[in-house]
Specification:
Blueprint: E1 3-10, E2 20-27, E3 32-36, H1 43-51, E4 58-63, E5 66-67, H2 73-79, E6 80-83, H3 95-100, H4 104-107, H5 115-127, H6 143-156, E7 161-165, H7 173-188, E8 192-196, H8 200-206, E9 209-214, E10 217-222, H9 224-227, H10 230-237, E11 241-246, E12 249-254
Parallel strand pairs: 3-8, 3-9, 6-7, 7-8
Antiparallel strand pairs: 1-2, 1-4, 4-5, 9-10, 11-12
Length: 262
């Protein structure tokens, strides 16, 4: 399934300038589409606009050719899985039960889990390497462990589209790589992934297409080799960066400054 956004403008009450200004994007089916940019560039606002959770001043969003407002909340919940940057844990809950919440759009309030539901939950636990935590209270997990559980909940939903805001936040190198590899596997199965990330090296290696934002506006979008070049990145991030091509793809290395002078 594909996302299409045309000229999205979002302005929060009391703000002197829009958080998002005339931003458009097309997210092809089966692709990993990454949104990058400095803090405050409008990345999370774009995610909310694509999900219909923030009012638009102008512009439109379509999902699989249908206007977003034409989808019921239940349809969207079955189709789009979301992993936000953070969320509160309001009550004690075991990890397996938390992941099982991903099946709620399919079950509703009164249906009991069936075989398909149990398989989806178990597969999600395994794919995110959190099966060993299944009986633990989610509140006892580290930040990185809990992040993998939240991704597992989204996978248990079996959505056609995954939207993730900083999915590798708090993860170590191994689990960062495992999550990006997992997301690419999902793309190969025909699912669509939209993610926000500050990990330029990982985005360069795994994304099919990148949108670079600055001050709520689209600077450039396209494949990594077109977006991630030194001149563009230094202009956006206001810091010297070196982009090199290695055997495993592009590498982005911050320059400037001597650690001994810090």
């Amino acid at each position: 399934m594909s996302f299409d956004a045309i000229s999205l403008t979002v302005r929060y009450p009391g703000s002197p300038r829009p958080a998002l200004a005339q931003v458009g994007c097309r997210v092809p089916e089966g692709s990993l589409y990454a949104v990058v940019g400095p803090n405050g560039s409008g990345k999370s606002t774009l995610m909310r606009a694509l999900l219909g959770t923030v009012p638009l001043e102008s512009g439109s969003v379509t999902l699989e050719g249908r206007p977003l407002e034409g989808w019921s909340r239940r349809e969207l919940a079955r189709t789009v899985g979301v992993v936000s940057q953070s969320e509160p844990m309001p009550f004690p809950i075991r990890v397996r039960e938390l992941v099982a919440l991903g099946r709620y759009p399919h079950l509703g309030a009164f249906r009991r889990e069936g075989g398909d539901d149990r398989r989806a939950i178990l597969n999600a636990l395994r794919e995110c390497h959190v099966e060993e935590f299944a009986r633990r209270d989610a509140g006892t997990l580290s930040g990185g462990e809990l992040q993998r559980v939240r991704i597992a909940r989204a996978l248990a939903q079996e959505p056609r589209i995954l939207v993730l805001d900083e999915p590798t936040a708090s993860l170590d190198i191994r689990h960062e790589m495992e999550i990006f590899l997992l997301l690419r596997r999902w793309c190969r199965r025909g699912y669509t992934v939209v993610l926000i990330s500050h990990k330029l090296d990982l985005v360069a290696r795994f994304a099919h297409k990148i949108l670079l934002l600055k001050d709520g506006r689209a600077v450039v979008q396209g494949p990594p080799t077109e977006v991630l070049n030194e001149e563009i990145l230094e202009g956006v991030y206001q810091w010297p960066l070196h982009v090199t091509q290695g055997e495993e793809g592009l590498r982005i290395i911050p320059g400037g400054g001597d650690p001994d002078d810090a």
